[in-house]
């Protein structure tokens, strides 16, 4: 049989299986017979066994059943196993299914442009003094701090003797009361931790005062080593509209 004539459709495959079932042939014998004739274009044994069972149960139609609301999968369309589909996608097409990476913020075009400009300003400031400038970097970030967090399952584990009942743990929700903490740190450690007072709004003036406190928190000895200058960077998008401009002794960069 030529290659062209051996390429039967799924409906034709099922018609052949139906014919052999009517003759009383077993699924294994049907599969071996179809492979000997159709060779590589023969259906899989799983497909032969499935349709042989359906025809033995009295099914007459060789058409697919309607699937309202559910799309046909690749495996069903090609009449191959799901494992084979996975092998083709991963080994031959060289694709893999991955989860989307989590990012803390969705940056707007303006945010992206501001980050780009801040990075250019920083590179211009650094020049060839990379080691010196790294000692001058002060990073700031903000986080919500709750009054208490319930223990995790791992944290609440206890040693017990065999036969003893496990300890009970009541379900506790995270504290609704929380404070915003602003942390400044450099290469030597934490410089300043500020807790926003309840009822206070984090605005430009408040943030500018924090920047001044962070500068003042560095020791005189440190200032002598770093030429009395600090570079401020932020870990998140600034929602306060706060700007920072250093005095004549140094530079200040507040960017995203």
UniProtKB/TrEMBL annotation:
The keyword NADP does not apply. GO terms for biological process: methylation. Pfam families: HTH_48, Transposase_1. Residues 14-58 form the Mos1 transposase HTH domain. Gene3D superfamilies: Ribonuclease H-like superfamily/Ribonuclease H. It comes from the Eukaryota. Keywords: Methyltransferase, Transferase. GO terms for molecular function: methyltransferase activity; nucleic acid binding. This is Histone-lysine N-methyltransferase SETMAR. The gene is SETMAR.
């Amino acid at each position: 049989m030529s290659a062209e004539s051996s390429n039967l459709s799924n409906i034709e495959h099922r018609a052949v299986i139906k014919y052999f079932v009517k003759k009383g042939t077993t699924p294994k014998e049907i599969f071996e017979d179809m492979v000997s004739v159709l060779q590589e274009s023969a259906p899989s044994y799983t497909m032969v066994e499935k349709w042989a069972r359906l025809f033995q149960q009295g099914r007459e139609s060789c058409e697919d059943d309607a699937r309202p609301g559910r799309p046909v999968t690749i495996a069903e369309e090609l009449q191959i196993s799901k494992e084979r589909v996975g092998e083709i996608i991963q080994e031959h097409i060289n694709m893999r299914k991955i989860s989307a990476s989590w990012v803390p913020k969705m940056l707007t075009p303006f945010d992206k442009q501001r980050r780009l400009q801040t990075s250019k300003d920083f590179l211009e400031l650094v020049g060839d003094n990379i080691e010196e400038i790294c000692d001058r970097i002060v990073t700031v970030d903000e986080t919500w701090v709750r009054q208490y967090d319930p223990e995790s399952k791992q944290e609440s584990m206890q040693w017990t003797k065999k036969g003893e009942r496990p300890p009970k743990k009541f379900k506790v929700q995270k504290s609704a009361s929380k404070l915003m903490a602003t942390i400044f740190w450099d290469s030597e450690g934490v410089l300043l931790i500020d807790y926003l007072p309840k009822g206070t709004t984090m605005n430009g003036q408040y943030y500018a005062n924090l920047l001044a406190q962070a500068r003042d928190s560095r020791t005189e000895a440190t200032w002598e080593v770093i030429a009395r200058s600090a570079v401020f960077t932020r870990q998140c998008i600034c929602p306060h509209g706060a700007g920072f401009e250093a005095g004549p002794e140094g530079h200040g960069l507040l960017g995203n």
